[in-house]
Amino acid sequence: MPSLIPVTTNRIGDHLPLLELLPSDAPLSWVRNGEGLVGWGVHATTTVSGKDRFEKARDWWHHQLETFAVANSVHGSGTGPVLFASFSFDRNQESVLVIPKVVVGQKGLQSWITWIGDTPQPLLPEKRENISQGAFTFGDGSISTAAWKERVAQAITRIETTKVDKVVLARDLLATTNADIDARPILAKLASEYPSTWTFAVDGLVGATPELLLRLSRGMVTSRVLAGTIPKTGDDAKDLALAASLARSSKDLEEHEYAVRSVAEALEPFCSSTNVPESPFVLHLANVMHLATDVTGALTESKHRVDAFSLLKNLHPSAAVCGTPRNIAFDIIDEIEGMNRGRYAGPVGWIDASGDGELGIALRTGQITGKEIRIYAGCGIVAGSNPEKELEESNAKMIPMRSALQS
C-alpha cells in the first residue's frame, strides 16, 4: 500500500494581502474584502462533464482525500486540503477541478497556510511590484450586438407564446492583446473597484461575482440571489431615485421572484427550515444596482451528510442564470443564444475536506486563453423586456471586466 501524502495546516502571521501573494502561473483565488483563499501549484487536477458531473467531482475529491495524511492545527471551513472548482453552465461542457499545492487563507484576524508534501512550510512570496498589461483591442464575440438584440426579441416572443416565464440570454466580447495575459492585475483591479464581490480565478476563468450561489458551513446554508438590474449614473441623488424605481419595478420584481423561488425550492428538500425574506433589498455596486435576497436554511440532520456537491446539483442552474421553468428556458438558450458559455454562469469557488465550501455564480467574468480574453454578460428576459434596454444592461454588466483590462 502506498504511503499517505502529508497535508499540513498551520497558523501564520497577521493580516495578509492575499492577492499579492499569487504567482503568474495558474493562480487560484476566492477573495472578498481581503478575506478568503488563494492557492498556487497543482497537486492534482481533472475535468468532469455530463449530467452526473457533481457526483463525479465528489468521487474524485474523496479519492484524493483518501491519499492524504492531514495535520490541521487550525480547523474550521477552508482549512486542511481544499478543492478549487469551476463548473460549466452546460453539463456537456468541461468543468475543472484543481487541488493546489499551497493554499493561504484569511478570515477575520486569523490567517493560515496549507501545503501538500513532506517539505518544510513554504515561504510566502514577497510583495510584488505592480504589473501592467498591454493595451487591449475589443471586438464582437460569438455574434454581433444587432444579432443579439434579435435573439432577445425572439426570447420575448417565446415568453408570450409558450409556457416559459423568463429566459436568461448572454453575450460575449473578445479582447486581444500582444502578449500572454497575466490574471493578477485583473484580479487586483477587480478587488480594488468591487471589494464586496468575490474575486475568483480558476484555470484561466477570472472575475468578480456579486452572486453567492452557496455557502455551506457547519450545517447552515446561504444563497444570495440577484435578479433585476439598473445601471448607476455616478450621481448620488439620481442613483437613489433609480434604486427606488428598481425596488418598485414590476418587471424587475417579477424576474427577481422567479430567481428567489428557484433557489428556495432547490434548498427545501435538504433543510429542516428555510428563511426567505418577503421583499428584496437593493445591492449597490460601483457600476450597477441589483435587487438582492439572501435565502438561508438549516440542513436536516441525517446519517447521510449533505455536502456542497449535493446542493450544487439542485441549485444549478438557477433562474438567475437560466430562466423559469429552467428546463424549458435551458432549451431556448441552447437553441437561440448563439454561443458556448463554457464555465461562464456556472458555479465557481472552493470545497474543503468536510464538504463545506463557498461557491458563487461565475458572473462579471472572462476566460483567458493566451493573448485573448472572452468576457461575458447576461440579462433576464421576461414579457416586459425591451431589446435595446437589455443591451444597455449587458453593457453595464461588462464594465467591471472592461475596466479591469485597462492598466
TrEMBL record:
EC numbers, comma separated: 5.4.4.2
MF (Gene Ontology): isochorismate synthase activity
Location of the Chorismate-utilising enzyme C-terminal domain: 146-397
InterPro entries xrefs: ADC_synthase, Chorismate_C, IsoChor_synthase
One record GO biological process: salicylic acid biosynthetic process
Family: Belongs to the isochorismate synthase family.
Catalysed transformations (reactions): chorismate = isochorismate
Keywords annotated in UniProt: Isomerase
Protein name: isochorismate synthase
